């Protein structure tokens, strides 16, 4: 009888530790630069952990406010998404609370095209809005302005991508960088095998033990907006910049950001 109770006690202790470990392995946030395909990654994470996303549109928060936000989101059984800058306060808080980060990157040229049409729907980012002088430009001129910032002083590649690159410098045990091009699958112009491979890596980084069949099932309808979902999803296609960039846009982008494209492995040289 005594041995039975002893082994039952040990079993319960092990079960509690396993549950605690599983909870800690699922403690994470999603960080995305604007227009990199946020809906794609948050939808995937929601299905992997069976939780809803809580979106916070602040780019940075003091450590105390950020800690409060994390606790509130966790107590609501949700996970947090932010367009967060890699500030010292946010990074230290996440590490202290043993969170993991899932960061999303996308070809900066496609980001600019997505941003162009996002603003055309009536949204504004900095000086770029239809109700501002920017709105009087032609569509090609608007795209040129997003790339260069020469007229109104804010180059969007710098504002959206470059300011967040330090997330990718963090150790892989802390930050996993996913790529839109891998996640989008064949419906978005990508590859289903690459999509599944990316999903497997994400689930492993999260500490989940899902079968390949379960992950394939999640991947089936990952692309696209949910019916009735409030999202800025437009086309969800990779390589759309090729249809929008003129020779002038290409020249401006190469001059300023070709090293960035090579660093991110979207190009090998300037021959594009």
Distance between the termini: 76 Å
Overall pLDDT, averaged?
A: 89
Main sheet attributes: strand count, strand direction, barrel closure: 5 strands, parallel
Spatial arrangement of strands, main beta sheet: 2-3-1-4-5
CATH class category: Alpha Beta
Detailed description of the structure:
- There is one protein chain.
- With 272 residues, this protein is of the alpha/beta class.
- 50% of the residues lie in helices and 9% in strands.
- Strand 2 (52-56), helix 3 (63-75) and strand 3 (78-82) form a beta-alpha-beta unit.
Please give a quick description of this structure.
The protein has 272 residues and is of the alpha/beta class. 50% of the residues lie in helices and 9% in strands.
């Amino acid at each position: 009888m005594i041995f039975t109770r002893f082994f039952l006690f040990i079993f319960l202790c092990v079960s509690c530790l396993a549950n605690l470990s599983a909870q800690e392995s699922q403690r994470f946030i999603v960080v995305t630069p604007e227009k990199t395909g946020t809906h794609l990654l948050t939808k995937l994470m929601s299905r992997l952990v069976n939780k809803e996303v809580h979106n916070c549109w602040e780019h940075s928060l003091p450590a105390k406010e950020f800690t409060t936000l994390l606790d509130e989101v966790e107590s609501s059984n949700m996970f947090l998404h932010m367009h967060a800058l890699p500030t010292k306060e946010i990074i230290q808080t996440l590490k202290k609370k043993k969170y993991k980060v899932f960061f999303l990157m996308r070809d900066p040229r496609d980001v600019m095209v997505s941003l162009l049409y996002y603003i055309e729907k009536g949204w504004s980012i900095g000086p770029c809005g239809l109700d501002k002088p920017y709105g009087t430009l032609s569509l090609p001129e608007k795209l040129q302005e997003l790339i260069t910032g020469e007229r109104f002083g804010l180059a969007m590649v710098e504002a959206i991508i470059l300011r967040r690159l330090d997330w990718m410098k963090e150790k892989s045990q802390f930050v996993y960088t996913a790529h839109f091009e891998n996640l989008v699958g064949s419906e978005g112009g990508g590859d289903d095998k690459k999509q599944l491979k990316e999903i497997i890596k994400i689930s492993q980084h999260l500490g989940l033990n899902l079968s390949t069949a379960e992950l394939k099932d999640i991947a089936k309808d990952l692309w696209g907006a949910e019916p009735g979902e409030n999202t800025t999803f437009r086309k969800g296609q990779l390589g759309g910049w090729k249809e929008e960039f003129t020779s002038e846009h290409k020249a401006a982008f190469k001059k300023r950001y070709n090293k960035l494209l090579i660093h991110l492995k979207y190009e090998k040289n300037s021959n594009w």
